[in-house]
Amino acid sequence: MIKVFYGKKGTGKTKQMLETANSIVRESNGAVVYIDDSNELMMKLSHRIRFINILDYPVYGSDAFLGFICGVASQNYDIETIFIDGLTYIVHQDAESLKKFFDGIAKISAEHNADFYISINGDEENVPEFIRPYI
How far apart are CA 14 and CA 106, in angstroms? Predict the structure, then answer.
């Protein structure tokens, strides 16, 4: 399953992601991972959530980030949920250019039974067609 929180900055996407992550980890038997581009939210997340600051790793662009996610998923087969907060900030690309990335995480989700929750900053009126099914 892939769920996208799409909207302009300041519309509460990160708050929804935090609440969802903390709720899921209480009921999860597997691992929950939260990927962000700062340490700001680390203390607001349950200590049971594996927090990753992507800036600690030399990952540039959506192809490299997809490879990073593959590495995370392959090193721990117990991962049930991966949160990605601010995808376009992390990969430094606009949402329209992320079709290949979404195809990749859809494959990971289906083959490894992992759920993805992703926040993307953008105008709700101009959501790319390949992202619409996930909103």
Answer: 22
**Domain housing 95:** 2-134
Give the DSSP letter string of 14-82. Answer: HHHHHHHHHHHHHH-SSEEEEEESSSTTGGGS-TTSEEEEGGGS---SHHHHHHHHHHHHHH-TTEEEE
**Domains contained in the chain, number:** 1
Per-residue pLDDT tens for 43-75? Answer: 999 999 999 999 999 999 999 999 999 999 998
Residue 42 has pLDDT above 90, yes or no: no
Q: Please, which residues bridge with residue 32 across strands? A: 81
CATH classification of the domain holding 87: 3.40.50.300
